[in-house]
Amino acid sequence: MGDINLSLVVIHAKDAVRFYVKGCNPQSRRYLGYQLLHCRDQLRQDCNKHHDLWRMHEIWEVERTDAYAFRPVRAVANGGEWECAIRQ
Asked: If we measure between CA atoms, which residue out of 60, 61, 55, 63 comes closest to residue 82?
């Protein structure tokens, strides 16, 4: 499976970056999985303004099953909870 002790695993796709950060237990296969999504869309239908940005999306507790494969365990935060989580 590769090095189980990698503390950071990054997987990049066309419009997403997923990065997995390992907890402090070296024997565990659990990570926190973060999703950074590239969002491009019209802001309003009646204007020509568009947005093109990267947004933090969900965080999941995941279990590493292979070198670049992770199984979701439970949701930690959804995309709408980021602003409050950063303030706290």
From this structure: 55
User: Is residue 83's pLDDT more than 60?
Assistant: no
The total number of residues written for the chain in this structure: 88
Q: Evaluate whether 27 touches 42 at the Cβ level (below 8 Å).
A: no
**CA angle, residues 7, 13, 15, in degrees to nearest 5:** 120
Does pLDDT of 46 surpass 80? no
For the whole model, what pTM was predicted? 0.73
pLDDT number for residue 45: 61
> What three-state secondary structure class fits 21?
strand
How far is 31 from 61, CA to CA, in rounded Å?
A: 6
Element (H, E) at 45: none
Q: How far is CA 51 from CA 35, 54, 86, in A?
A: 19, 10, 23
